[in-house]
Amino acid sequence: xxxxxxxxxxxxxxxxxxxxxxxxxxxxxxxxxxxxxxxxxxxxxxxxxxxxxxxxxxxxxxxxxxxxxxxxxxxxxxxxxxxxxxxxxxxxxxxxxxxxxxxxxxxxxxxxxxxxxxxxxxxxxxxxxxxxxxxxxxxxxxxxxxxxxxxxxxxxxxxxxxxxxxxxxxxxxxxxxxxxxxxxxxxxxxxxxxxxxxxxxxxxxxxxxxxxxxxxxxxxxxxxxxxxxxxxxxxxxxxxxxxxxxxxxxxxxxxxxxxxxxxxxxxxxxxxxxxxxxxxxxxxxxxxxxxxxxxxxxxxxxxxxxx
Length: 307
Fold this sequence. Notes:
This is HNH nuclease domain-containing protein. This protein has 13 helices and six strands. By secondary structure, the chain is mainly alpha-helical. The strands form three sheets. Strands 1-2 form a two-stranded antiparallel sheet. Strands 3-4 form a two-stranded antiparallel sheet. The chain has a two-stranded antiparallel ribbon with strand order 5-6. It starts with 7 loop residues before the first helix and ends with a helix.
């Protein structure tokens, strides 16, 4: 729902640290007695490891297609018991990539806490409904969950790819879980109008502005946009629970006419100051991640022409 801002410094650190560790694990596996197809798969990953870790969403799709065509046994299937795993899949998942991911979540120098902290994402990019704060103190640690945009249980070779690691709230992470849909929008690729919220009046007299007549039954919250993220993350259903936010905006529309806004400007308040004061929200798109429901407030307030 919100775009994650790319962090070049973090990206470079991630590729450098993770590639070194995974390469070492691959070399250990290549010393075992393997079939030629398994060797070919591991050699391919070793030779292309940097590119796999750097792969953006479109490149990850290409790798998924390549592995399906050339190393189909490296692809996992949902709800398959470990005893039925293909050997190369087991090696990639359990002995290399999932092992690396589990170790990464615990590392102090560069691990999951450092990753989330440097991304500095304050709310879940999938829903913009929950905070994703991090606490990394001596007396305790707390961080958001990290979703694999393409599940590591199905595509283990993408488990540590930078663009595949999405800090998220627990609701979105568990709602999506192992769902695979190549039409989902990766948060790094989301644009402003990919998600647009609106309100729909339930009565023809709705537009006669009177603060007393607004209630939860007088309107509905809807998405103008239509994409798979809205369906997968149940965003339409979840945002119906936030009518109180829209109701407050409707009442503010009745309370604060345009001439009041102009008077505030006359006292020296900037448009950003007025926006924060009246709406308790951020105005710039790059700041929307700092507060839950900021996208809802921004879209509806603009539609109401509040400021």
